[in-house]
């Protein structure tokens, strides 16, 4: 029997927790073929061990399809044995970055989308969840209006396949219901949708998952911190005092001792206005210093300042974000700097602090 044929057969076995095949996920070790005997070890996380039997049968079936005479012995081991608290939610996602703001309209979604795409431009694997269930803007900003995700059966369970924007998997309530219907969703339904986006969607291996939160503090933020371990939050504010005051309230939710999500830094959006015809001019319409102030208050850093320019709004409306175009290098650079600083802050955070735990709160 040919070992490489067996590997190719095993590559058809899908791990139901991630939707990826067990070869891509490097779950097979010590594959040995002797006569009719095929022996190997299948490494499972504690979450995958729920599917132990299914996976065992799937492996045997896949090999016997090629070699009906094969005697297959699958030795299953748990890779998390002895670990204190294995990550069981989105184990294939290395970092989850929540983008939050105090009030609406400060450009949180614009920052989230351009940050995600700038991270992707560094070569990282990035996905996005639009958790702004009341006002989903991702479909418009990425030109995906009217598109619907497909549902596929993965081991007998229906799973959502995210939509794709230029190689970036994305999910939004706007892909499921019409935007004007979103407001009718209430507490438990909202929590259900967030959980579907996390646990019932087939996300590939990702370096960063960027989550666009609704403004303020509410059920959705609470559901999210109870559902996934958030690596850190990026706060978006405009420079004026009132925006900062609201942003502090939103920020304080992340810093609650039982939530304990670190603030990676602050993005000051609409920092100054630059007219198209006078690209070197800066008019500080909303005052100055809000971003720095918020960064100081959260003991974090100002990740960057984004100007108020027509191209950013046009990019969002046209479904082609400014960092994906070449007609506004200044804004593109500003977002690139935000992404570089975010990468650095995530790396420092992961070096210095233990992984975030999912919040267990009495409701
Ligand atoms: N720096 C900017 N320059 C020009 N227009 C911008 C800028 N940032 C955001 N906008 C525009 O402002 C509007 C609001 O932005 P966005 O939807 O990102 O805000 P938001 O904070 O996510 O709002 P909400 O959460 O209330 O939906 C959009 O039309 C967007 O294109």
TrEMBL record:
Domain MIP18 family-like: 3-74
Pfam families in alphabetical order: FeS_assembly_P, ParA
Any single biological process term in GO: iron-sulfur cluster assembly
Keyword ATP-binding attached: yes
GO molecular function (one): ATP-dependent FeS chaperone activity
Residues the entry annotates as binding ATP: 102-109
Keywords from the named record: ATP-binding, Hydrolase, Iron, Iron-sulfur, Metal-binding, Nucleotide-binding
Family according to the record: In the N-terminal section; belongs to the MIP18 family. In the C-terminal section; belongs to the Mrp/NBP35 ATP-binding proteins family.
Record's function text: Binds and transfers iron-sulfur (Fe-S) clusters to target apoproteins. Can hydrolyze ATP.
Subunit-level organization: Homodimer.
Identification of the protein by name: Iron-sulfur cluster carrier protein
